[in-house]
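User: Here's a structure from my thesis project, written as structure tokens. My advisor, Dr. K., wants to see whether a designed sequence matches the one we expressed. Can you design one independently, without my sequence as a hint?
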């Protein structure tokens, strides 16, 4: 079986080969995970947030494809120095645009990266016991999509185990 390589643009390939802000952050204020290792795409975001709710540092770990790594990398670059309220407004479409576009089958990587970011922001405020007016009460599109991907991966994993046991 042969596979045709996906048409990644040079920016995605550069961020894949040389990702920015890759690695665990030991002094992170908050950490969030999105994805599922059984499906291949998983992101862990680490944010260091100051007392004025500004993102001082951002890093990530990614287990996935070139698009997953590139979108996670670009999100960490986009949000450094931003107030959490402004980072909350980042959309998956702006991430896809920032990496110069993605093949449509890889849009979910931008969605997952933004879902991880929004989970981190939501967790930060939950841990503080506050909810700013701008923080949506209901999960965002990106957060919902991250949950759906995780649920799908669980279902597929159960099916694969059942097949193996036959």
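Assistant: Designed independently from the structure alone:
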């Amino acid at each position: 079986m042969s596979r045709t390589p996906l048409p990644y643009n040079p920016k995605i390939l550069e961020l894949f080969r040389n990702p920015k802000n890759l690695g665990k952050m030991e002094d992170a204020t908050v950490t969030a995970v999105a994805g599922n290792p059984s499906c291949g795409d998983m992101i862990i975001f680490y944010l260091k947030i100051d007392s004025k709710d500004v993102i001082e540092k951002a890093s990530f770990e990614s287990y996935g494809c070139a698009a997953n790594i590139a979108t996670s990398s670009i999100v960490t670059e986009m949000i450094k120095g931003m107030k959490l309220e402004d980072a909350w407004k980042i959309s998956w479409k702006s991430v896809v645009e920032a990496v110069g576009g993605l093949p449509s089958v890889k849009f979910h990587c931008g969605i997952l990266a933004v879902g991880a970011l929004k989970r981190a922001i939501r967790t930060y405020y939950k841990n503080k016991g506050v909810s700013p007016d701008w923080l949506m009460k209901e999960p965002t599109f990106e957060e919902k999509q991250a949950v759906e991907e995780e649920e799908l991966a669980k279902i597929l994993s159960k099916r694969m185990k059942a097949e193996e046991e036959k």
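When you compare it with your expressed construct, this may help: The first strand starts at residue 30 and ends at 36.
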